[in-house]
User: What shape does this take?
Amino acid sequence: MVADATLERLFMMTREEFWQMADDQKLRDEYAANDDLRWLQTATMDELREMFLEYRVFTIYFADDLSLLVAKMPLGRLKSLMAQLVSEELGEGNPEASHIKLLEDFIVSLGVPPERLTQPTDPENLKLLTKMRDLLLSNPHTYGVALRGMGGECICQVYLLTLFEQFRRNPFVEANAEQIDWRWWDIHAGPADSEHNSMMKAAVDELMQEDPASVEELAAGYQEAKILLSQFWNKIYRQVRTNAAQASA
Ligand SMILES: [Fe+2]
Ligand SMILES: [Fe+2]
Assistant: This one.
């Protein structure tokens, strides 16, 4: 059976195989060829507004899930790193500098009325976020480190970088670049998040060297994170692109 074969492969995965699986260049190539990401170059401003409005809730869950992960972890380098990431997400004591606030400022700078920021999220997307939280809470912390730590700082980092590169080429974005608040992107498509990616990988590598049995859980968490992220974005694209098709019909 396929499921058994997959489980067996995960069980037998070595540290070297884990890093081959979690290779950034492989992700970069996959996302660079993604039709939805490439579509961002030609999306309308309205489509971009709807897309980021729907994405907003993802970042709220991310910070809270990281906090839950910190609580689950034993004392050590990874716990401290996760706590540092939570603090940065929440603005290090200044809510105005929290990543959610910076994202909201970016969305409003695209021309979205502030009162729309809290509009209800697609129930299907909420289900995906809830599923991610349930998986985090019901699995060992090593699984959670890959699901939320690597999921957020490695997989999402490469995804957002590709997304940024594509939508920055959009002529509407280009024409409005002066009015757009780029601070959220300075972090998430810039050196800060690239450093988080490296820090996370170094800490995970240390964990695998100390405890080779953790590779199995890390690999399972990583693969689940990649699937859930793609399902989340996929729902957004299907919603936004379908709406646009209907509006122009
Ligand atoms: Fe962030
Ligand atoms: Fe980060």
Residues 153, 193, 196 surround fe (ii) ion (ligand 2) (CB under 6 Å).
